[in-house]
Amino acid sequence: MKEINIKNVAITFVVALIIWFIPAPEGVAQNAWHLFAIFAATILGIILKAAPMGTMCMMAIGFTALTQVVAPGDAGKSITKALSGFGDKVIWLIGISFFIARGFIKTGLGNRIAFLFIRVFGKSSLGLAYGLGLADVCLAPAIPSNTARGGGIIYPIMKSMAISFDSVPEKPETHRKLGSFLTLNSYYMNLIASSMFLTGTASNPMCQKFAANLGIDITWMSWAAAGFVPGLVAFFVVPLVLYKLYPPELKKTGDAPKMAAQKLKEMGPISKNEWLMLLAFFILLFLWIFGGALSIDATTTAFIGLTLLLLTSVLTWEDVKSEKGAWDTIVWFAVLVMMASSLNELGFIGWFSNLIKIQIGGLSWQVAFPVIIVVYFFSHYIFASATAHVAAMYAALLGVGVSLGIPPMLLAMMLGFMGSIYGVLTHYGHGPAPVFFGSGYVDLKVWWLRGLEIGIVLLIIYMVVGGLWMKVLGYY
To answer: Which residue in 84, 156, 265, 417 has its CB near the most CB atoms, within 10 A?
Structure first.
């Protein structure tokens, strides 16, 4: 029972029952209201950490099928519908991308890329910050777990660099020397990289799916095109702002390139498996960018990449079976998508969107757009999971905005970007946050204060630069 918090599970059940037995509001079908009760309780359970996300989602499937809310009176159809999320191609895109990411870690290619950038840019603390960030951006298109990317590749290298300059977690008086600055900057850069690509973090394809439910078509290339310019501006601006707000005591890190060169020397020449991993990476990028013209979608491309890695033995089937993060993501992702999609089909999302529209219906879309984005961004303080936040609010806010006349693609993409960058606000706001915060280099007060400041900077960059850039692209 170590994984289960009995008190929070009880709270979750009580909330579910309360919502269930409240009469359905006018305009909402009874089964849609009951499905909402299950969905809301699942999200609450995830926020409260009543049980692991996978456990909460398995419970949701069980109750959805048992109560037949998605197919009243037809038990067979109900369980089929409850499991329908597992057949969604978006689910498998993100799952297979996790397997491909394992190749970067297993072959050592991810570490090699990071050390190469440090060797080039690492002569100063600011250069070191850019070098680590650039490595994250280069890895982001093919490593959808920003936790694996940040925590498994960037963080260990960042920490070793800080310690090598005598900025040690166990010695608080040394934190400001280099470790604190690199910790915050690496985390912020991870989130910026996550926002730039559809496959940059696990919640992005969920946004794609919810947008598709409303008739908004987002492809890998359309996301990358929209995210590239604001992401690039944020990439250059954020380290500079942080350098002014929270400067490291050590400005010059002349030994970092030598240390990176030594690490590369220890790794030896690029191995055959690294070359094969690099080849698969470029094939993936090519097909994700140009596959639309060849009628090859993003999920098919992911299957092609995984097949190539399996056939060349870069990955083994044992590697695929043991990639717990991927299978875990496939499970909870499929269940949340199933419930959110069913709520849309049953008319609940439309009803809820109209309810909010009534409250802000007098606003022009130019005013409603920043209001919706700001509300979505700062509401992340109450969420311990980016995925739970996307599942709870993305579709509803998108529906409201579109009904108010906000250009659909503009709002869909901007809400998608927020799904990454709102993670700067707290030490629990995104997957990699506990890893970087757990280093001990940054105390809680500083983390939240710097996060608020950088969050405002990112909001301005994405809404102003990103909004104007999407206008240039013809997205609205």
So the answer is: 417
